[in-house]
Design goal:
By secondary structure, the protein is an alpha+beta fold. Helices cover about 25% and strands about 25% of the residues. The protein contains five helices and nine strands; from the N terminus they run βαβββαβαββαββα. Strands 1, 2, 3, 4, 5, 6, 7, 8 and 9 form a nine-stranded mixed beta sheet that branches. It is globular, with a radius of gyration of 18 Å.
């Protein structure tokens, strides 16, 4: 299977799940809302594509992620453990379409880390949640997520800035990271995919 990533922008927004088309929850604050088109214009003028979309080889969407400078998402200032830092790019939400492709979430975070580093962000931040033991994969990752498992983010090197109950604001410093070239990044993604896709059990030996 071959896959590819494109920037989340005005041109690719229509290909992602419909719940994302007009959603402005992160872009709003309090009772005040904003027009999605106006926000897109500002985001693309100030930052460019505001996330990534992951496509299968047939063009179907495997997942998408929204991120950008923290000041583009005023809702984050109201959340427990917020506000995010002004020098960071903030991952606000992701949508994982198919539970049979769990490596897509890792791939989206790898793309966000590389993109934020390339654009000069000092760090990548997001909101995390400490799930209890035994929580199902679907609860932790599937469909529309605005907060991510703390143990999952720890594997990338995210550190806790502050906590409010089970919710945490976590940060990955990008200053010491070396930009990953696309061929190398593809190898990492392939390794993650192979590691996370369940392997068939061996056939039992005949007596």
């Amino acid at each position: 299977m071959t896959t590819h990533v494109e920037g989340l922008s005005r041109g690719t927004l229509e290909t992602v799940p419909t719940v994302c088309h007009d959603c402005v929850w992160w872009q709003s604050r309090g009772a005040r809302s904003v027009a999605k088109e106006r926000w897109i214009e500002r985001a693309e003028d100030d930052w460019g594509a505001w996330g990534t979309v992951y496509y299968d080889d047939d063009g179907s969407v495997l997942g998408s992620m929204q991120y950008g400078p923290a000041d583009l998402f005023p809702r984050a200032a109201e959340l427990p453990a917020g506000p995010p830092s002004h020098d960071a790019a903030l991952v606000t939400c992701a949508y994982l379409v198919d539970g049979r492709s769990p490596w897509v979430m890792q791939s989206l975070f790898l793309a966000a880390i590389g993109d934020a580093k390339d654009r000069g962000a000092k760090a990548l931040e997001t909101f995390a949640y400490r799930y209890g033991e035994g929580e199902r994969f679907a609860e932790r990752f599937l469909v529309h997520k605005t907060i991510f498992p703390r143990d999952f983010l720890a594997d990338f090197g995210f550190r806790t800035l502050r906590a409010a109950g089970r919710v945490e604001l976590v940060r990955l410093e990008l200053g010491g990271l070396v930009p990953v070239e696309e061929p190398a990044r593809a190898k990492v993604v392939n390794a993650l995919r192979k590691a996370l896709v369940p392997q068939p059990l061996p056939e039992p030996r005949q007596p």
